[in-house]
Amino acid sequence: MLSALAERLPGSGAVWWLYCYLWQFAALLHAWRLHQRIGFDVCQHVTFVKYNTPSLLHLLGTPFIFGPVGGAEKAPLSFFKEFGWKTWLVEAARVGLIKAARFDPLLRWCVRRSELCLGVTEDTAAELRKLGAKRVEVLPAVALSDDEIAQIQAAKSQEQSAKNEPLTLLYVGRLIAWKGVYLGLRALAQCEDKKLRYRIIGDGPLRVWLEAEAQRLGIANRVEFCGALPRDQVLQAYAQADGFLYPSLHDSGGNAVIEAMCAGLPILCLDCGGPGWIVSEGCGWKVEASEPDAVVVQLAQVLMEFSREAAERSVRASAARQRALEVYAWVTRGKQFRRYVAEV
User: What is the DSSP code string of 275-343?
Assistant: First the structure.
């Protein structure tokens, strides 16, 4: 009943929160009945992938794994001045909820009784440690299936290996404030290479403003807003691009990032959240998320390096693809999780 109410009411986050807590009791009762009949060796909680939503499955008496969970990632406070008032309020509320979660007795009980807690980023792992977790590991919740890898590679093989100028950077994702697309636009405007192009796939409430911002910066002729595209066209866009500019401020995951890496694109991102963890130094260029103006200057510098250094671009593209195939395939993730289960 609460689930149906949460789906119908606008702005019903509080109803979802209540529903989730009450659901834990029902889930525990159902799991206990199954445990009496089957006898579980290990139990795991992954619902909603939110670290601040506790589970009661640790009461079954079996070794308990909490995660992978995320949600502790947040935009640095210096960027709040860049947000509109609605986004500012949402981001401020997220920060408040992250701090308030430390005082949730059910959450602390859940985390402290877990044999293993898995955070999708170091940000969430740090919060789990503050809650008293005995053991915390970082394990991203995103990966690619064999079918997805095959589709990306098939699209790549259809494109010519030799790229023509101008070089094109790609973005795939929602057009909302904390995704930081406006930082990419400003960096592109400051970059000395005035031929570099930016192709943006995705839609959202900020699209009209971003298009106006591109006009204001004098780069509208080098920025293409494609809107939402079918999956096959997105894969083709990965294959046609030269790099992936993804200046997000607090992604928990970053599935588009590993897709781009699998397609052999070096990544240009901020060193925070999921992308900051996923992208190693050799797979692209990472910029410290200090404050907006400094980020734009540093992004403009790495854009210039990306543009000028063809050999380095190629090396990092190969490293990105290798890392995606070796670390961010579901086959690999399955092996990692089986090892964790064996250990607990």
Answer: HHHHS-GGGEEEE--S-HHHHHHHHHHHHHHHHH-HHHHHHHHHHHHHHHHHHSBHHHHHHHHHHHHHH
Third-level CATH fold of 2-143+331-343: Rossmann fold (3.40.50)
Neighbouring CB atoms inside 10 A of 176's CB total 17
Residue 15 above 80 pLDDT? no
Note the CATH architecture for domain 146-328: 3-Layer(aba) Sandwich (3.40)
**CA-to-CA distance for 54 and 106, rounded, in angstroms?**
6
Helix, strand, coil percentages for the chain (3-state, nearest 5): 55, 15, 30
Q: Calculate mean pLDDT across residues 161-185.
A: 87
Whether residue 68 has a cis bond before it, omega within 30° of 0: yes
Query: What pTM, to 2 d.p., does this model score?
Result: 0.87
